[in-house]
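Lab notebook, bench 4. The sequencing result for the construct came back, and we need a structural model before the next group meeting so we can plan mutations. Quick request posted to the team channel:

Model the 3D structure of this chain.
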Amino acid sequence: MGDAPVVSVIIPAHDAADTIAETMRSVLSQSWARIETILVDDGSTDETGEIVRDIGKDAVRVIRQEQRGAAAARNVGLNSATGSYVQFLDADDILSATKIELQMRALEFAGSRSIASCTWTHFEHDPAHAVHRPETVWTIEDPVEWLVRSLSGEGMMQPGAWLTPRSVIDDAGPWNESLSLHDDGEFFHRVLLCADRNIFVPDAIVYYRTVSGSLSRRRSREAITSAFAVCQARQRLLLMVRDDAAARRAIATQYAQFAYEFAESAPDLSREALTLIRELRTEPAHTVGGSAFRLLSSSLGFAKALRIRSALK
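Done. Here's the predicted structure in C-alpha cell form:
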C-alpha cells in the first residue's frame, strides 16, 4: 500500500457541529490507507473546527476562512490537496467504510481519464435506515451519454459518490464560486466532459443526509438565478461536444424542470426558460412533474401543461 496513490478528501463545512463528527469518522475509518483529509471551515460560528481537531488530531488538515460559500471552500481545499485522486464530501454525508478502496481498485484497471461513481442512498437521522433508489443513469459508462440521459430525467449522481483523478479535475477547472444552487451539477458536468469513462462501483456507498432547509431547497433570488445560470452553462458545454436530437431534448428537459420548479417564485426566468426550449426546436422529455402533469404534458405539450397548472393554482 506504500506506493498506492493518495486520495484527497475535501470537506467544506459551515456550522456543521451537529453532523461533522459522524462524517469525519466515516472518512478516518476508510479501508484505503493513503488518504489526505482536508476540512475547510467556511466561517463557522459553532464548534465545527474544534470537533474536527478533537476527532482527527494530526490526521486532518483544518483550514479556516471567512465565510465565502461551499464552492470557494472546495477550491481552497483543492489548492491545498496533494493527492492524485479527489473525493469531495459534504459535512453531513457519510462514506461506507470501503467506499474509496473499492473505487480505487476499480480505477486500477481503467484508463487514466476514467472516473468512478457509486451507489448513493437517502437518510435523515440514521444511515442504517437509508432508502436505496437505483437510477437508470448510474451504470452508463460513456460520460456524454451519461449527461444526456441524466438531463433527460433518468437520474443523477450525488457529488460525494464521485472519485475523480486530479488530472481530470485540473482539465475541468475549479468550482464556479459565483454559483450557489446546483454548483455541484455544473462542476461535475465539466468533469464528465473531460473524462473518458464512468465506472460505476455498486458496493461502494455514499449516505446522503436529507436536511430540511438545506441550500438545495432554498428559493432566494440568488439561488434561483444560480440554477438558471447552471442550465445555460450545461447547454453551452454539452452542445459543443454533441449537438443532436437527444442532446437538445436533454437540454430542453432541464429548462422544463427549471420552469416547472420556479414558475411562481421566478416567473420571468421561467418564461425565459420556455423561450429557450422553443429555440431548441424540440419538446422536453415527459419526466418533469408528477404523474398527472406528465400525462397532461404528453398530450398538450409542456408549455400548455405549465400554463394550465399555473391557472389552477
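The beta strands are 7-13, 35-42, 60-65, 85-88, 94-95, 114-123, 131-132, 164-165, 197-209.
Will bring this to the meeting.
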